[in-house]
TrEMBL record:
Domain of life: Eukaryota
Species assigned in the record: Galerina marginata (strain CBS 339.88)
Coiled-coil segments: none
Lineage start: Eukaryota, Fungi, Dikarya, Basidiomycota, Agaricomycotina
Keyword Oxidoreductase: yes
Protein name (database record): Uncharacterized protein
Length: 142
């Protein structure tokens, strides 16, 4: 783990990241998709944040493809589902690992509680610093 500053982030709905904007989602990954090289021999490692974003993007893509019926080939669907299952497992465990204890507001309709998750302030690692580190690391190994 690298030591980065903490920042506050209010989680809000972000319409810039629509389900159909492939370009915008691709921009979440830095140059070489979030890989760094470490040590004198430059051993490659993936940075977990970028694997998580890759998985969110893959699930987004699968959802839109399924919703719109764009893929019907069973072999492609089977391969996609295997990758999606990997992503669900990786994201589930990553979320548990971070165990974000920020409190988010709830609404009650006398039968159940619900929450949007929007509007709450969270304490986060500075993802901009991490991105800068990854980009500098990539440049050093080119």
């Amino acid at each position: 783990p690298l030591g980065f500053q903490e920042v506050s982030m209010v989680i809000e709905e972000n319409h810039q990241f629509s389900l159909v904007d492939d370009e915008k989602w691709a921009e979440t990954l830095p140059g070489k998709r979030g890989f760094v090289r470490v040590g004198p021999k430059g051993r490659p490692f993936g940075v977990a944040l970028y694997h998580q974003l890759h998985c969110v993007n893959a699930l987004r893509f699968s959802y839109t493809v399924a919703r719109d019926g764009l893929v019907t080939d069973p072999k492609i669907l089977k391969s996609k589902l295997a990758h999606d299952n990997h992503c669900f497992q990786f994201l589930r465990q990553s979320i548990l690992c971070k165990a974000d204890d920020s409190l988010i507001t709830s609404r009650s309709n006398n039968q159940s509680l619900s929450q949007s998750g929007f509007g709450a302030t969270h304490r986060c690692r500075n993802w901009a610093q991490l991105r800068q580190f990854v980009l500098e690391n990539e440049a050093a190994w080119e």
